[in-house]
Amino acid sequence: MEPLLRLINIRKTFNSVKDQKVEAVDEISLEVWEGEFLCILGRSGCGKTTLLRMIAGLEPPTGGEIFLENQLIRGTDPNVGLIFQEFVLLPWRTVLGNIEFGLEVMGVDQAQRRRKAMEYIKIIELEGFEHQYPKELSGGMKQRVAIARAIICNPKILLMDEPFAALDAQTRFNMQKFLLSLWEKTGKTIFFVTHNVDEAVFLGQRLILLSSRPGKIISETKVDLDYPRDIHSMEFIRIRKEALQQLENN
Predict the structure, then answer these.
(1) Could you tell me if 169 and 63 lie in one domain?
(2) What crossing angle do the helices spanning 110-123 and 95-105 adopt, rounded to 10°?
(3) Which residue, of 154, 171, 186, is where some domain finishes?
(4) Whether the bond into 91 is cis, omega within 30 of 0
(5) What CATH number is attached to the domain comprising 202?
(6) Is residue 116 assigned to a domain?
(7) Pairing state of beta strands 206-210 and 157-161?
(8) 194, 200 Cβ separation under 8 angstroms
(9) Is 56 found in the same domain as 28?
């Protein structure tokens, strides 16, 4: 069985304002499997977002290659869905209009995209809010809309860049549980970037820890805990402690 996504010796170097080289990512090789929930964990500034942007085709790697289903990624691809930390919804469109947007760009006829969007509104539990505008929604509701807008186009992989970081603690926890239920329903491959250790252990089947800049893989941990996970269990606490120690030492 072939991996869905392969990163081979990925490097990324930026030029600073003083024309000095800044190494963001260094020699990252990684395989991601279809249907997997993978969490990339590291401190702020370690190159997590840069890595995600290269997979999304928004940044070219300085060195190395990235393959999706054995096809070299050379730019943006409809098979790659992307969700940012900020609520990047179109403010002039309703919930329904935002969710339909990707299908509209793809040329799907109005009746079909409306039917599909209404299905996803039910899945994300926002029935009754389809004609509301983003400014009328809470942060958690906005992110549900953003997730539905990405998934409705049926990407092969969903990239998530700290999507719950701007939410309060309780909403964040609720969104984590919502995302897990959506993942179980859809079987989507999720590549989730976070600097929150508890979030990574709560969500991920596998954790990839990155060092401080330049980001290198320092460890890989398979999380053999059943869902839903008990954050107070001894095994959860053990995995969390080990991840924290590795991050502190790198």
Answers:
(1) yes
(2) 130
(3) 154
(4) no
(5) 3.40.50.300
(6) yes
(7) unpaired
(8) yes
(9) yes
Does one domain contain both 203 and 130? Answer: no
Task: Please tell me the distance from the alpha carbon of residue 127 to that of residue 43, in angstroms, as a whole number.
Answer: 37
Establish if 84 belongs to a structural domain. no
Distance CA(100)–CA(108), nearest Å, equals 9
pTM of the model: 0.92
**Does residue 136 share a domain with residue 122?**
yes
Q: Which two tokens stand for residue 118?
A: 């209404």
- Return the SS3 of 36: coil
Task: Kindly state the tokens that stand for 152.
Answer: 């409705």
Local confidence pLDDT in tens for the 250 residues of the chain: 899 999 999 999 988 767 778 889 999 999 999 999 999 999 888 889 999 999 999 999 999 999 999 999 999 888 999 998 776 789 999 999 999 998 888 888 999 999 999 999 998 889 999 999 999 999 889 999 999 999 998 999 999 999 998 888 998 999 999 999 999 988 999 999 999 999 999 999 999 999 988 999 999 999 999 999 999 999 999 999 999 999 888 8
pLDDT of residue 87: 66
Pair 55, 162 in one domain: yes
Of 109, 133, 154, the domain-final residue: 154
CA distance between the termini of the chain: 33
Dist CA 209 CA 35 (whole Å): 20
Q: Is residue 86 part of a domain?
A: no
Classify 35 in phi/psi space as left (phi over 0), alpha (psi -120 to 50) or beta.
left
Residue 121 lies in domain: 92-154
Alpha carbon of residue 54 to chain centroid: 13
